[in-house]
Amino acid sequence: MTVGRQPLVLTIPDRCKTCYGCVRECPAKAIRIVSGQAQVIPDRCIGCGNCVQVCSQGAKAIRDGLPEVEALLASGRPVALELAPSFPAEFVDLPWRRLVGMIRAAGFAFVHEVAFGADLVSERYRRLVEQSDGRQYIATTCPALVEYVQHYFPHLVDRLAPIVSPMVATARVIRLEHGPEVPVVFAGPCIAKKGEATWDGGGEIDGVLTFPELRALLLRRGVEADLAGDSDFDPPHGGLGGLFPVTGGLLKSASIDDDLVHAEGVAVDGHRRFVEAIREFEAGAVPAVLLEVLACEGCVMGPGMTRKDPRFRRQAEVTRTLRERARELDEEPWEQAMERYRTLDLSRRFSAVDRRVPGPSPEELQELLARLGKSRPEDELNCGACGYATCVEHATAIHQGLAENEMCLPYAIDRLRTTVRDLHASHEQLAAAQEALVQAEKLASMGQLAAGIAHEVNNPLGVVLMYAHLLAEELPPDSPLAADLRLIAEQATRCKNIVSGLLNFARQNQVRLQPVDVRDLVQAALRGVRRSDSVKVVVEDGACDPMAELDRDQVIQVLVNVLVNACEAMPQGGTLTVRIDGDADWVVLEVEDTGVGIPQDHMGRIFTPFFTTKPMGRGTGLGLAVSYGIVKMHRGEIRVRSQADPTRGPTGTTFTIRLPRRGRSE
Ligand code: ADP
Ligand code: MG
Q1: Which residues contact 605 (CB under 8 A, 6 or more apart)?
Q2: Is residue 202 part of a domain?
Q3: Cβ(32)–Cβ(41) under 8 Å?
């Protein structure tokens, strides 16, 4: 066996839907999940074909044996085909003589029964058991099993029975019968035979076909059952070796006693049981000289079959054909052939090809499990969804580079939940940001208009005011016009204040940054607000650095505006909370009231100039517009949260003002 050999089983990309069925069923742990696709690792694969059998998506393909065989047939040389004894379980639709006739019609010069090679091999096993001298052996008729021991129980290779398989024994007979140059093709239900053909550099078997491939070959070469004649196998014919594809068939044909008293042999099959059996053998618990192990439930259940019949139906086909042939078998030539080949060398040695991968240390294992969200023993659900029996096995496989975290179902569900939560949060953030942007755009265009008007109105207003003052000075003090002039000046001043507010909103004014203590600033603002005794004021100082570079007067104006609104929202009284907080870069001022709240449909308009819900003469609708402008001039932000629906809990409003700590004016 060579390292880096050709894969026996390939994954068809994109067909794999990562159900982990193949991972679960692979006794050699030779399947790696990479980016959600199952890959067979050629060097670890033993060719048992379990993954092919369990994949419901047909995502596993067996290495194609047809091109080699077609090339041999096309070469014009006489080619021999040896047929595995499980053939009656596959070709239930054809009498065996017709099948042989068809194989000949396809161009094979010789058609032999592997059953005769099995007869020879049985005889060698009989001798091995008789001469065992207390030594225990594992039978080597199943190539998947042989590779399994070589890779994963390398210390047991000297227990592998040193006897070739019936396939190789038959090939040696064929070459003695027909000449050493005859190419030999094996046809059977086995994928691992394709690997066995290459052991020790190959040379004895020139091609391996599965039964479906044999059917395909017959079809391609235009062989039809109705037209092909009947034919018998080339001698030597097989005897009880025909039982090999049935579990225990080797023991039976070699007359090795498997009863509990004599305990010469024990037979085990199936991809789960065979692994257990090897472990028990290793532990010295198998009470027999010879352990016959088949990776499938007998070769009749091999992966290279088209039939879907149940096990005993297949076995029955094999034994029925065997009985039929036994009735016709002429014992004498068979015995002569056995005698002729009694001295044929059928021995072979096996060497270890250790493919074990070290597992993680206890610390590494703990770390791996923690990454899967399994920090405590009770987190290990051992649900098997990942394809591994336990969470520890899965973590070990991750360590060995065979598995991924994502294979863990609870882990994946948890991650999905977090992702959904994150997505939801970022969706909300996005919506808020979008709303703020629309708002800012609206206010910006409004600011342009306001600034234009304010500029135009400001100068005439100044003139009106100036002349009103001049006239007042020139009038005699008792003039009846004095009161009218005072009213003119008063109203003009009011207009000037509004215009100045608009300029603030439009960010047309300058900010004069200076270091200020925000605690003082809050106190000054609170002093500037008239409020009823029923409003309780709470100041919460987050004890962060109180110093910041701000335009003191303007920020006081912002706070006063917000505080006045808060008080006005609580005509029956309530609690007014002012919070001072922040971090290294930002000062955060929060004003919270327990007032009536702002209805949802007003939220988008409160920063707009002249938006007010207050009666004429009470509100100008400029307070928040001006505050917005000032905060923006500081490159800060002002936000509002409000609850105005009493049926949904206590109402109230919170304004949050964030200002950069180190002077960053526009
Ligand atoms: P004014 O106070 O002159 O109405 P503002 O710009 O200060 O103008 O406020 C605009 C509107 O926003 C108010 O009329 C009011 O409807 C709403 N408002 C502002 N702050 C609050 C608050 N704390 N509670 C309830 N409504 C508020
Ligand atoms: Mg106001």
Answers
A1: 611
A2: yes
A3: yes
Same domain, 535 and 487: no
| pLDDT tens column, 47-86 | 999 999 999 899 999 999 999 999 999 999 999 999 999 9
Ligand 1 atom closest to Cα of residue 561 = 7
Note whether 129 and 193 are same-domain residues: yes
Nearest CA to ligand 1 atom 8: 621
| 499 lies in the same domain as 518 | no
**Percent of the chain surpassing pLDDT 70:** 99
Ligand 1 touching residue 569 (CB < 6 A): yes
pLDDT at 443: 79
Q: Give the pLDDT score at 76.
A: 93
Domain boundary among 407, 433, 461: 407
- Is residue 106 pLDDT above 60, yes or no? yes
CA angle 277, 279, 280 (to 5 degrees): 65
Q: Could you tell me the residue range of the domain that residue 437 belongs to?
A: 414-506
Q: Is the CB of 598 under 6 A from ligand 1?
A: yes
Cβ 563 under 6 angstroms from ligand 1? no
Does any ligand 1 atom lie closer than 6 A to the CB of residue 22? no
Percent of the chain scoring above 90 in pLDDT? 70
* CATH number of the domain within which 463 lies: 1.10.287.130
Neighbours of 576 (CB within 10 A): 23
State whether 110 and 250 are in the same domain.
yes
C-alpha distances in angstroms, 487 versus 311, 346, 454, 460?
Answer: 112, 128, 22, 17
With beta carbons less than 8 A apart as the criterion, state whether 563 and 591 touch: yes
Instruction: Say if ligand 1 is within 6 A of residue 613 CB.
Output: yes
Q: Are residues 182 and 272 in the same domain?
A: yes
What per-residue confidence (pLDDT) applies to 666?
53
Q: Could you read off the pLDDT of 432-484 as tens digits, one per residue?
A: 889 888 888 887 888 778 888 887 888 888 899 999 989 988 888 788 888 88
Q: Could you give the CA distance from residue 48 to residue 620 in angstroms, rounded to a whole number?
A: 87
Atom of ligand 1 nearest to the CA of 626: 6
Alpha-carbon gap, residue 303 to 83, rounded angstroms? 16
Same domain, 528 and 636: yes
Task: Verify that 147 and 294 share a domain, yes or no.
Answer: yes
Count up the domains in the chain and report the number: 5
For residue 644, give the ligand nearest its CA.
1
Q: Is the dihedral of CA 551, 552, 557, 560 positive or negative?
A: positive
Q: Which pLDDT score is estimated for 665? A: 53
Residues 254, 109 share a domain: yes
Is residue 221 in contact with ligand 1, taking CB distance under 6 Å? no
Model pTM score: 0.67
Q: What is the mean pLDDT of residues 277-282?
A: 95
Q: What is the pLDDT of residues 118-150, one digit of tens each?
A: 999 999 999 999 999 989 999 999 999 999 999
CA-nearest residue, atom 14 of ligand 1: 612
Burial class (CB in 10 A: 0-12, 13-18, 19+), 249: buried
